[in-house]
Prior knowledge:
Elements: H1 9-18, E1 24-27, H2 33-42, E2 47-50, H3 54-61, H4 72-81, E3 84-87, E4 98-101, H5 116-128, E5 134-137, H6 145-154, E6 166-169, E7 188-192, H7 195-208, E8 212-214, H8 218-248, H9 253-260, H10 284-294, H11 300-328, E9 336-340, H12 355-365, E10 369-373, H13 399-403, E11 407-410, H14 419-425, E12 429-431, E13 445-447
Parallel strand pairs: 1-2, 1-4, 2-3, 4-5, 5-6, 7-8, 9-10, 9-11, 11-12, 12-13
Antiparallel strand pairs: 6-7
Helix pairs in contact: 1-7, 5-6, 8-10, 8-11, 11-12
Amino acid sequence: MSSEQPISLAAQLRGKIDNRTSVIGIIGMGYVGLPLAVAAYDAKFPILGFDVDQAKIDGINGGRSPIGRIGDETISKMRQSGRFEVTDDYRRLGECDVIIICVPTPLNKYREPDLSYVTGTTQRIAEHIRPGQIISLESTTYPGTTRDVMRPILEGKRLKSGTDFFLAYSPEREDPGNPDFHTASIPKVVGGDGDDAVNIALAFYSAVVARVVPVSTCEVAEAVKLTENIFRSVNIALVNELKVIYDKMGINVWEVIDAAKTKPFGYMPFYPGPGLGGHCIPIDPFYLTWKAREYHVATRFIELAGEINTNAPYLVVDRLVEALGQHCRQALAGSKILMLGVAYKKNVEDTRESPAFTLIEEIERRGGAVEFHDPFVPVIPHMREHANMAGRQSLELTASSLANFDAVLICTDHDNVDYCLVASHANLIVDTRNAMARVDRSAPIVLA
Length: 448
Protein backbone atom coordinates (compact mmCIF):
# COMPACT_ATOMS: atom_id res chain seq x y z
CA MET A 1 0.00 0.00 0.00
CA SER A 2 1.50 3.31 -1.04
CA SER A 3 2.16 5.92 1.64
CA GLU A 4 2.24 8.73 -0.90
CA GLN A 5 -0.42 11.42 -0.44
CA PRO A 6 -2.69 12.11 -3.43
CA ILE A 7 -1.90 15.29 -5.30
CA SER A 8 -4.45 17.99 -4.49
CA LEU A 9 -6.61 19.59 -7.17
CA ALA A 10 -4.82 22.88 -6.52
CA ALA A 11 -1.41 21.28 -7.08
CA GLN A 12 -2.60 19.52 -10.22
CA LEU A 13 -3.90 22.78 -11.66
CA ARG A 14 -0.70 24.61 -10.75
CA GLY A 15 1.24 21.90 -12.53
CA LYS A 16 -0.82 22.27 -15.70
CA ILE A 17 -0.32 26.03 -15.66
CA ASP A 18 3.41 25.72 -15.07
CA ASN A 19 3.93 23.31 -17.98
CA ARG A 20 1.51 25.22 -20.26
CA THR A 21 -0.89 22.33 -20.76
CA SER A 22 -3.81 24.07 -19.06
CA VAL A 23 -6.50 25.22 -21.49
CA ILE A 24 -7.39 28.88 -21.00
CA GLY A 25 -11.06 29.70 -21.59
CA ILE A 26 -11.82 33.39 -22.10
CA ILE A 27 -15.47 34.45 -22.16
CA GLY A 28 -15.96 37.63 -24.17
CA MET A 29 -13.81 38.38 -27.21
CA GLY A 30 -13.99 42.17 -26.94
CA TYR A 31 -11.62 44.93 -25.90
CA VAL A 32 -10.53 43.02 -22.79
CA GLY A 33 -10.87 39.35 -23.70
CA LEU A 34 -9.16 39.37 -27.08
CA PRO A 35 -6.00 41.21 -25.94
CA LEU A 36 -5.83 38.78 -23.02
CA ALA A 37 -6.07 35.90 -25.47
CA VAL A 38 -3.13 37.36 -27.41
CA ALA A 39 -1.08 37.63 -24.21
CA ALA A 40 -1.96 34.06 -23.19
CA TYR A 41 -1.05 32.84 -26.68
CA ASP A 42 2.33 34.57 -26.45
CA ALA A 43 2.82 32.78 -23.12
CA LYS A 44 2.38 29.43 -24.99
CA PHE A 45 -1.03 28.47 -23.60
CA PRO A 46 -3.81 26.87 -25.67
CA ILE A 47 -6.83 29.23 -25.67
CA LEU A 48 -10.52 28.63 -26.21
CA GLY A 49 -12.49 31.86 -26.64
CA PHE A 50 -16.24 32.17 -26.11
CA ASP A 51 -18.65 34.77 -27.46
CA VAL A 52 -22.32 35.13 -28.36
CA ASP A 53 -21.78 37.22 -31.51
CA GLN A 54 -21.66 34.77 -34.41
CA ALA A 55 -20.28 37.37 -36.83
CA LYS A 56 -17.40 38.05 -34.45
CA ILE A 57 -16.77 34.34 -33.95
CA ASP A 58 -16.69 33.70 -37.70
CA GLY A 59 -14.43 36.68 -38.25
CA ILE A 60 -11.87 35.67 -35.63
CA ASN A 61 -11.88 32.03 -36.70
CA GLY A 62 -11.36 33.32 -40.24
CA GLY A 63 -8.28 35.28 -39.15
CA ARG A 64 -9.92 38.71 -38.93
CA SER A 65 -9.57 40.93 -35.88
CA PRO A 66 -12.56 42.95 -34.62
CA ILE A 67 -10.22 45.37 -32.81
CA GLY A 68 -8.05 47.89 -34.60
CA ARG A 69 -5.02 47.61 -32.31
CA ILE A 70 -4.81 43.85 -32.90
CA GLY A 71 -3.96 43.18 -36.51
CA ASP A 72 -5.42 40.46 -38.71
CA GLU A 73 -1.95 38.98 -39.03
CA THR A 74 -1.86 38.35 -35.27
CA ILE A 75 -5.20 36.56 -35.29
CA SER A 76 -4.22 34.55 -38.39
CA LYS A 77 -0.99 33.43 -36.73
CA MET A 78 -2.85 32.39 -33.59
CA ARG A 79 -5.41 30.43 -35.59
CA GLN A 80 -2.79 28.70 -37.73
CA SER A 81 -0.92 27.54 -34.63
CA GLY A 82 -3.82 25.33 -33.59
CA ARG A 83 -3.76 26.85 -30.09
CA PHE A 84 -6.62 29.32 -30.50
CA GLU A 85 -10.29 28.89 -31.37
CA VAL A 86 -13.48 30.83 -30.67
CA THR A 87 -16.88 29.21 -30.15
CA ASP A 88 -20.40 29.85 -28.89
CA ASP A 89 -20.68 26.29 -27.53
CA TYR A 90 -20.53 26.77 -23.77
CA ARG A 91 -20.60 23.02 -23.23
CA ARG A 92 -16.89 23.20 -24.06
CA LEU A 93 -16.21 25.07 -20.81
CA GLY A 94 -15.52 21.65 -19.36
CA GLU A 95 -12.38 21.50 -21.53
CA CYS A 96 -10.95 24.56 -19.80
CA ASP A 97 -8.75 24.58 -16.72
CA VAL A 98 -8.64 28.37 -16.34
CA ILE A 99 -11.81 30.34 -17.13
CA ILE A 100 -11.60 34.13 -17.42
CA ILE A 101 -14.79 36.22 -17.54
CA CYS A 102 -14.53 39.41 -19.60
CA VAL A 103 -18.14 40.53 -20.08
CA PRO A 104 -19.79 43.98 -19.84
CA THR A 105 -21.04 45.42 -16.55
CA PRO A 106 -23.23 48.33 -17.66
CA LEU A 107 -25.77 50.41 -15.75
CA ASN A 108 -29.52 49.99 -16.09
CA LYS A 109 -31.88 52.86 -16.88
CA TYR A 110 -31.89 53.83 -13.18
CA ARG A 111 -28.07 54.08 -13.22
CA GLU A 112 -27.80 51.01 -11.02
CA PRO A 113 -25.41 48.07 -11.61
CA ASP A 114 -26.54 45.62 -14.27
CA LEU A 115 -24.84 42.32 -13.47
CA SER A 116 -26.96 40.29 -15.88
CA TYR A 117 -23.96 39.50 -18.11
CA VAL A 118 -21.90 38.35 -15.12
CA THR A 119 -24.68 36.26 -13.57
CA GLY A 120 -25.72 34.80 -16.92
CA THR A 121 -22.15 33.81 -17.70
CA THR A 122 -21.64 32.38 -14.21
CA GLN A 123 -24.79 30.26 -14.59
CA ARG A 124 -23.45 28.88 -17.87
CA ILE A 125 -20.18 28.02 -16.18
CA ALA A 126 -22.05 26.36 -13.32
CA GLU A 127 -23.81 24.07 -15.79
CA HIS A 128 -20.46 22.68 -16.95
CA ILE A 129 -18.14 23.23 -13.98
CA ARG A 130 -15.94 20.36 -12.91
CA PRO A 131 -13.42 19.87 -10.09
CA GLY A 132 -10.01 21.37 -10.70
CA GLN A 133 -10.93 24.60 -12.47
CA ILE A 134 -10.23 28.22 -11.56
CA ILE A 135 -12.68 30.97 -12.54
CA SER A 136 -11.43 34.55 -12.60
CA LEU A 137 -13.67 37.57 -13.09
CA GLU A 138 -12.11 40.60 -14.81
CA SER A 139 -15.23 42.71 -15.35
CA THR A 140 -15.45 45.87 -13.24
CA THR A 141 -17.93 45.58 -10.40
CA TYR A 142 -18.64 46.50 -6.77
CA PRO A 143 -16.82 44.84 -3.84
CA GLY A 144 -18.47 41.56 -2.92
CA THR A 145 -19.62 40.49 -6.38
CA THR A 146 -17.19 37.57 -6.73
CA ARG A 147 -17.92 36.18 -3.28
CA ASP A 148 -21.60 37.04 -2.80
CA VAL A 149 -22.97 36.79 -6.35
CA MET A 150 -20.75 34.36 -8.27
CA ARG A 151 -19.73 31.88 -5.58
CA PRO A 152 -23.27 30.76 -4.59
CA ILE A 153 -24.13 30.13 -8.25
CA LEU A 154 -20.96 28.09 -8.84
CA GLU A 155 -21.44 26.09 -5.64
CA GLY A 156 -24.93 25.06 -6.76
CA LYS A 157 -23.76 21.59 -7.83
CA ARG A 158 -22.42 20.83 -4.36
CA LEU A 159 -18.91 21.79 -5.36
CA LYS A 160 -17.08 24.01 -2.89
CA SER A 161 -14.94 27.06 -3.65
CA GLY A 162 -11.39 26.59 -2.39
CA THR A 163 -11.70 22.80 -2.37
CA ASP A 164 -13.26 21.60 -5.63
CA PHE A 165 -12.82 24.74 -7.72
CA PHE A 166 -11.11 28.07 -7.22
CA LEU A 167 -12.38 31.62 -7.57
CA ALA A 168 -10.45 34.83 -8.20
CA TYR A 169 -10.87 38.45 -9.22
CA SER A 170 -8.36 40.36 -11.33
CA PRO A 171 -9.56 43.69 -12.77
CA GLU A 172 -8.80 44.48 -16.39
CA ARG A 173 -6.57 47.50 -17.01
CA GLU A 174 -6.77 48.01 -20.74
CA ASP A 175 -6.08 51.44 -22.25
CA PRO A 176 -7.18 51.32 -25.92
CA GLY A 177 -5.17 53.56 -28.20
CA ASN A 178 -2.20 53.85 -25.83
CA PRO A 179 0.86 52.57 -27.73
CA ASP A 180 3.02 52.55 -24.59
CA PHE A 181 1.10 49.82 -22.79
CA HIS A 182 -0.45 46.48 -23.71
CA THR A 183 -1.94 43.63 -21.69
CA ALA A 184 1.33 41.85 -20.97
CA SER A 185 3.12 45.01 -19.81
CA ILE A 186 0.45 46.33 -17.42
CA PRO A 187 0.74 45.15 -13.77
CA LYS A 188 -2.11 42.82 -12.80
CA VAL A 189 -3.87 43.02 -9.43
CA VAL A 190 -5.08 39.61 -8.20
CA GLY A 191 -7.30 38.62 -5.29
CA GLY A 192 -8.67 35.17 -4.54
CA ASP A 193 -11.22 33.29 -2.48
CA GLY A 194 -8.69 31.57 -0.23
CA ASP A 195 -4.96 30.91 -0.40
CA ASP A 196 -5.08 28.22 -3.08
CA ALA A 197 -7.16 30.44 -5.36
CA VAL A 198 -4.70 33.32 -4.98
CA ASN A 199 -1.71 31.11 -5.64
CA ILE A 200 -3.26 29.49 -8.73
CA ALA A 201 -4.33 32.88 -10.12
CA LEU A 202 -0.85 34.23 -9.47
CA ALA A 203 0.67 31.28 -11.32
CA PHE A 204 -1.47 31.93 -14.40
CA TYR A 205 -1.22 35.72 -14.53
CA SER A 206 2.51 35.67 -13.75
CA ALA A 207 2.96 33.56 -16.88
CA VAL A 208 1.05 36.10 -18.97
CA VAL A 209 1.96 39.56 -17.68
CA ALA A 210 5.22 41.14 -16.55
CA ARG A 211 4.17 41.90 -12.97
CA VAL A 212 1.43 40.61 -10.68
CA VAL A 213 0.27 42.42 -7.54
CA PRO A 214 -1.43 40.07 -5.05
CA VAL A 215 -3.95 41.47 -2.57
CA SER A 216 -5.60 39.84 0.41
CA THR A 217 -9.14 39.29 -0.90
CA CYS A 218 -11.36 39.52 -3.96
CA GLU A 219 -13.06 42.51 -2.34
CA VAL A 220 -9.79 44.44 -2.19
CA ALA A 221 -9.11 43.69 -5.86
CA GLU A 222 -12.63 44.80 -6.80
CA ALA A 223 -12.14 48.03 -4.85
CA VAL A 224 -8.81 48.69 -6.57
CA LYS A 225 -10.45 48.92 -9.98
CA LEU A 226 -13.20 51.23 -8.74
CA THR A 227 -10.66 53.45 -6.99
CA GLU A 228 -8.57 53.84 -10.14
CA ASN A 229 -11.54 54.92 -12.24
CA ILE A 230 -13.16 57.10 -9.59
CA PHE A 231 -9.83 58.91 -9.24
CA ARG A 232 -9.98 59.77 -12.93
CA SER A 233 -13.66 60.67 -12.84
CA VAL A 234 -13.24 63.09 -9.95
CA ASN A 235 -10.19 64.79 -11.42
CA ILE A 236 -11.78 65.12 -14.85
CA ALA A 237 -14.85 66.66 -13.20
CA LEU A 238 -12.61 69.12 -11.39
CA VAL A 239 -10.87 70.27 -14.55
CA ASN A 240 -14.20 70.45 -16.41
CA GLU A 241 -15.46 72.79 -13.71
CA LEU A 242 -12.26 74.84 -13.83
CA LYS A 243 -12.74 75.15 -17.60
CA VAL A 244 -16.12 76.82 -17.08
CA ILE A 245 -14.78 79.16 -14.39
CA TYR A 246 -11.65 80.19 -16.29
CA ASP A 247 -13.62 80.66 -19.51
CA LYS A 248 -15.81 83.23 -17.76
CA MET A 249 -12.60 84.99 -16.67
CA GLY A 250 -11.15 84.95 -20.17
CA ILE A 251 -8.44 82.47 -19.15
CA ASN A 252 -7.44 79.54 -21.36
CA VAL A 253 -7.63 76.43 -19.16
CA TRP A 254 -5.34 74.51 -21.53
CA GLU A 255 -2.57 77.06 -21.06
CA VAL A 256 -3.09 76.88 -17.29
CA ILE A 257 -2.74 73.08 -17.31
CA ASP A 258 0.36 73.15 -19.53
CA ALA A 259 2.04 75.55 -17.11
CA ALA A 260 0.88 73.72 -13.98
CA LYS A 261 2.21 70.36 -15.15
CA THR A 262 5.76 71.71 -15.15
CA LYS A 263 5.67 71.31 -11.35
CA PRO A 264 7.63 68.09 -10.72
CA PHE A 265 5.67 67.09 -7.62
CA GLY A 266 2.19 67.33 -6.15
CA TYR A 267 0.37 67.79 -9.47
CA MET A 268 -0.89 65.47 -12.20
CA PRO A 269 -2.43 66.90 -15.39
CA PHE A 270 -6.01 66.05 -16.33
CA TYR A 271 -7.75 67.61 -19.30
CA PRO A 272 -11.28 68.86 -19.93
CA GLY A 273 -13.47 67.49 -22.67
CA PRO A 274 -17.03 67.15 -23.98
CA GLY A 275 -17.93 64.47 -21.44
CA LEU A 276 -16.78 61.04 -20.36
CA GLY A 277 -16.67 57.99 -22.62
CA GLY A 278 -15.53 54.39 -22.66
CA HIS A 279 -16.90 51.51 -20.65
CA CYS A 280 -15.18 52.38 -17.34
CA ILE A 281 -15.09 55.97 -16.13
CA PRO A 282 -18.71 56.97 -16.92
CA ILE A 283 -20.03 53.79 -15.28
CA ASP A 284 -17.76 52.45 -12.54
CA PRO A 285 -18.26 55.21 -9.92
CA PHE A 286 -21.97 54.40 -9.82
CA TYR A 287 -21.17 50.80 -8.84
CA LEU A 288 -19.59 52.07 -5.64
CA THR A 289 -22.25 54.70 -4.88
CA TRP A 290 -24.92 51.99 -5.28
CA LYS A 291 -23.09 49.57 -2.98
CA ALA A 292 -22.37 52.31 -0.42
CA ARG A 293 -26.11 52.77 0.18
CA GLU A 294 -26.17 49.28 1.70
CA TYR A 295 -23.83 50.63 4.39
CA HIS A 296 -25.72 53.92 4.78
CA VAL A 297 -22.70 55.88 3.58
CA ALA A 298 -23.13 59.04 1.49
CA THR A 299 -20.92 59.40 -1.59
CA ARG A 300 -21.43 63.12 -2.20
CA PHE A 301 -18.00 63.76 -3.75
CA ILE A 302 -18.28 60.89 -6.25
CA GLU A 303 -21.87 61.76 -7.16
CA LEU A 304 -21.01 65.43 -7.66
CA ALA A 305 -18.21 64.44 -10.04
CA GLY A 306 -20.67 62.25 -11.94
CA GLU A 307 -23.13 65.13 -12.17
CA ILE A 308 -20.50 67.51 -13.54
CA ASN A 309 -19.23 65.03 -16.10
CA THR A 310 -22.74 64.03 -17.18
CA ASN A 311 -23.63 67.69 -17.72
CA ALA A 312 -20.49 68.44 -19.78
CA PRO A 313 -22.01 67.70 -23.23
CA TYR A 314 -24.89 70.10 -22.60
CA LEU A 315 -22.47 72.90 -21.69
CA VAL A 316 -20.63 72.24 -24.96
CA VAL A 317 -23.87 72.66 -26.89
CA ASP A 318 -24.52 75.91 -25.01
CA ARG A 319 -21.08 77.07 -26.08
CA LEU A 320 -21.85 76.08 -29.67
CA VAL A 321 -25.04 78.17 -29.53
CA GLU A 322 -23.07 81.18 -28.25
CA ALA A 323 -20.39 80.76 -30.93
CA LEU A 324 -22.93 80.55 -33.75
CA GLY A 325 -24.64 83.68 -32.51
CA GLN A 326 -21.42 85.60 -32.05
CA HIS A 327 -19.54 84.62 -35.20
CA CYS A 328 -22.28 83.63 -37.66
CA ARG A 329 -25.24 85.66 -36.44
CA GLN A 330 -27.50 82.61 -36.52
CA ALA A 331 -29.28 80.22 -34.20
CA LEU A 332 -28.51 76.55 -33.72
CA ALA A 333 -31.93 75.66 -35.11
CA GLY A 334 -31.48 75.27 -38.86
CA SER A 335 -27.67 75.17 -38.64
CA LYS A 336 -25.58 72.38 -40.15
CA ILE A 337 -22.92 71.00 -37.82
CA LEU A 338 -20.04 68.68 -38.73
CA MET A 339 -18.78 66.70 -35.77
CA LEU A 340 -15.17 65.53 -35.89
CA GLY A 341 -14.87 62.23 -34.06
CA VAL A 342 -17.51 59.97 -32.51
CA ALA A 343 -15.13 57.48 -30.84
CA TYR A 344 -14.88 58.03 -27.09
CA LYS A 345 -11.13 58.77 -27.26
CA LYS A 346 -8.60 59.50 -29.94
CA ASN A 347 -7.03 56.92 -32.23
CA VAL A 348 -9.48 54.10 -31.43
CA GLU A 349 -12.65 52.79 -33.04
CA ASP A 350 -14.39 52.28 -29.69
CA THR A 351 -17.67 54.23 -29.42
CA ARG A 352 -18.87 52.85 -26.08
CA GLU A 353 -20.47 55.57 -23.92
CA SER A 354 -19.02 58.26 -26.19
CA PRO A 355 -20.26 61.78 -25.36
CA ALA A 356 -20.51 62.37 -29.12
CA PHE A 357 -23.93 60.72 -29.20
CA THR A 358 -25.32 62.87 -26.41
CA LEU A 359 -23.98 65.91 -28.29
CA ILE A 360 -25.65 64.80 -31.53
CA GLU A 361 -28.96 64.14 -29.79
CA GLU A 362 -28.92 67.51 -28.00
CA ILE A 363 -27.97 69.47 -31.12
CA GLU A 364 -30.70 67.78 -33.13
CA ARG A 365 -33.21 68.24 -30.30
CA ARG A 366 -32.51 71.97 -30.55
CA GLY A 367 -33.09 71.96 -34.28
CA GLY A 368 -29.58 71.57 -35.69
CA ALA A 369 -28.54 68.97 -38.28
CA VAL A 370 -25.43 66.87 -37.59
CA GLU A 371 -23.13 64.81 -39.76
CA PHE A 372 -19.81 63.39 -38.65
CA HIS A 373 -16.33 62.50 -39.84
CA ASP A 374 -14.34 59.84 -38.02
CA PRO A 375 -11.49 57.95 -39.74
CA PHE A 376 -11.80 55.14 -37.17
CA VAL A 377 -15.60 54.81 -37.30
CA PRO A 378 -16.85 54.57 -40.90
CA VAL A 379 -20.33 53.56 -39.69
CA ILE A 380 -21.89 54.05 -36.27
CA PRO A 381 -22.44 50.56 -34.83
CA HIS A 382 -25.49 49.32 -32.98
CA MET A 383 -25.38 50.37 -29.32
CA ARG A 384 -27.54 49.61 -26.29
CA GLU A 385 -28.22 53.35 -26.05
CA HIS A 386 -28.62 55.72 -29.01
CA ALA A 387 -29.78 52.78 -31.15
CA ASN A 388 -31.42 55.21 -33.58
CA MET A 389 -27.98 56.39 -34.72
CA ALA A 390 -26.78 52.99 -35.90
CA GLY A 391 -25.88 52.99 -39.58
CA ARG A 392 -24.97 56.66 -39.92
CA GLN A 393 -21.90 56.93 -42.13
CA SER A 394 -18.78 59.05 -41.78
CA LEU A 395 -18.59 61.94 -44.22
CA GLU A 396 -15.46 62.41 -46.31
CA LEU A 397 -13.45 65.41 -45.10
CA THR A 398 -12.82 67.77 -48.02
CA ALA A 399 -12.59 71.50 -48.57
CA SER A 400 -16.03 71.58 -50.18
CA SER A 401 -17.69 69.44 -47.52
CA LEU A 402 -16.27 71.63 -44.76
CA ALA A 403 -17.53 74.78 -46.45
CA ASN A 404 -21.08 73.37 -46.48
CA PHE A 405 -21.34 73.40 -42.68
CA ASP A 406 -22.03 76.36 -40.46
CA ALA A 407 -19.69 75.00 -37.77
CA VAL A 408 -17.29 72.18 -37.07
CA LEU A 409 -17.47 70.68 -33.56
CA ILE A 410 -14.33 68.79 -32.54
CA CYS A 411 -15.38 66.03 -30.16
CA THR A 412 -12.52 63.53 -30.59
CA ASP A 413 -9.03 64.68 -31.55
CA HIS A 414 -7.79 61.79 -33.69
CA ASP A 415 -4.21 62.27 -34.85
CA ASN A 416 -4.94 61.36 -38.47
CA VAL A 417 -7.39 64.20 -39.13
CA ASP A 418 -6.17 67.02 -41.39
CA TYR A 419 -6.61 69.93 -39.00
CA CYS A 420 -4.91 72.32 -41.41
CA LEU A 421 -7.65 71.54 -43.94
CA VAL A 422 -10.25 72.15 -41.23
CA ALA A 423 -8.68 75.45 -40.23
CA SER A 424 -8.54 76.62 -43.84
CA HIS A 425 -12.09 75.80 -44.93
CA ALA A 426 -14.39 75.66 -41.89
CA ASN A 427 -16.65 78.63 -41.26
CA LEU A 428 -16.44 78.21 -37.48
CA ILE A 429 -14.66 75.71 -35.23
CA VAL A 430 -15.79 74.80 -31.73
CA ASP A 431 -12.96 72.83 -30.16
CA THR A 432 -13.49 70.68 -27.05
CA ARG A 433 -10.01 69.09 -27.14
CA ASN A 434 -7.65 72.01 -27.94
CA ALA A 435 -6.82 70.18 -31.17
CA MET A 436 -6.49 73.40 -33.16
CA ALA A 437 -3.56 74.52 -31.02
CA ARG A 438 -1.48 72.33 -33.35
CA VAL A 439 -2.12 74.39 -36.49
CA ASP A 440 -2.18 77.94 -37.78
CA ARG A 441 -5.62 79.42 -37.31
CA SER A 442 -7.65 81.07 -40.01
CA ALA A 443 -11.27 80.16 -39.20
CA PRO A 444 -12.80 81.50 -35.95
CA ILE A 445 -12.02 79.03 -33.17
CA VAL A 446 -13.90 78.81 -29.90
CA LEU A 447 -12.71 76.52 -27.10
CA ALA A 448 -15.53 74.63 -25.41
